[in-house]
Amino acid sequence: MTQGNDFEDDQHVIVNQQGVLAGGAFDEVEKVREKPTRLGYEFQCTCNGCARPAKILIPWDELITASAGAIPLDQAQNRPWSMQNTKEGAFMFPAAFCPCGVQYPIAFTPDKAARMVDKGINMRALDPQQVHQQVLFVKQQMQGYQRR
Fold it and tell me: Is residue 16 within 8 Å of 23, Cβ to Cβ?
């Protein structure tokens, strides 16, 4: 038996006051970078299963529909989005799966979609009047289909 600390080989090293999980590789895990573009919102992330990088573009029309509280239809795949968390109402984009089968960490609520749409309006990628008309149209279509 040794004198002193029997677990000295397990001591955690503090790097820049961020703990043992500091560093470039850890920063890429679960990190999703997002930015508005002229065509929609672009998400860049890395698959947690195979570490494959992904760039996913969600078109403005689908974000406007989500911001109105309706489940959008993925225009490219012709299938509806799904609800990731029905308690909080988070939507999951259908193309948010890596070819290895693991889901990319891309999901958001109608409130977040509305904030994204606002950024699109602020950067002049969207016409505020057209957004308003589309939201009204979606809400009219939803009458009778509201969750109770």
Answer: no
Higher per-residue confidence, 77 vs 42: 42
Give the number of residues written for the chain. 148
What is the rounded CA–CA span in Å between residue 86 and residue 71?
12
Residues 53-107 have pLDDT tens digits of 888 899 999 999 989 988 887 777 777 777 765 566 777 777 677 888 887 777 7
Tokens of residue 61, six digits: 């029309």
| Residues 38-53, mean pLDDT to the nearest whole number | 88
**What's the rounded Cα separation, in Å, for the pair 133 and 71?**
17
Report the sign of the C-alpha dihedral through residues 87, 91, 95, 98, in that order.
negative
Mean pLDDT of 114-143: 92
| Rg over CA atoms, the chain | 21
**Domain residue extents for the chain:** 18-142
Question: In the sheet where 53-59 sits, what is the strand order?
Answer: 33-36, 40-46, 53-59
Residue 96 has, within 13 A of its CA and on its CB side, a CA count of 21
Measured between alpha carbons, how far is 86 from 49 in angstroms, rounded to an integer? 25
- What's the CA gap between 64 and 91, in Å, rounded? 13
